[in-house]
Amino acid sequence: MRLYSLSVLYKGDPKVHLLKAAYDVSTFNFFQRSSVQEFMTFTSQLIAERSALGSRASVKEQEYLCHVYVRNDGLAGVVIADNEYPQRVCFTLLDKVLDEFSRQVSKMDWPSGSPATISYSALDGYLSKYQVQTPET
User: Fold this and answer.
1) What residue stretches are annotated with the Longin domain (predicted)?
2) Is residue 122 part of a domain?
């Protein structure tokens, strides 16, 4: 059971844009990592774009399960995990991250923000904290 990506996005008027993201692509071949990360960024934006305000959904994309939560204020979170990762845990994580993000980052920064301009550093910590450690066999 693995988490691969945790993203915070803003579902604005024209389109969705990424505010902050964390990735764990360490299980992929070194040469595949950047394209896997691009795929996850693109998929997160697409799923958030296609989800209605105030909705939660889980979408299967290739061998991944993408869990999306779009709040009524336009703030959205996406977790990309493998098929075995518990859905309930993903939505608990999204709730926690979006609540904390909205307290720490001014709502005025959301429409124009980008990963370079938004200062919110907790995503990497959450990604590793919620990673399920499986014993080596």
Assistant:
1) 8-127
2) no
Query: Considering the entire predicted model, what is its pTM?
Result: 0.93
Phi, psi of 109 (to 5 degrees): -85, -15
Of 4, 23, 126, the closest CA to residue 66 belongs to 4
Q: Are 7 and 30 in contact (CB under 8 A)?
A: no
Where do we find the tokens 């399920």? 132
Domain count along the chain: 1
Q: How far apart are CA 45 and CA 118, in angstroms?
A: 17
Tell me, what CATH number does 88's domain have?
3.30.450.50
Does residue 79 fall inside a structural domain?
A: yes
Token look-up 């920064």 returns 109
Structural domain for 76, as ranges: 1-115
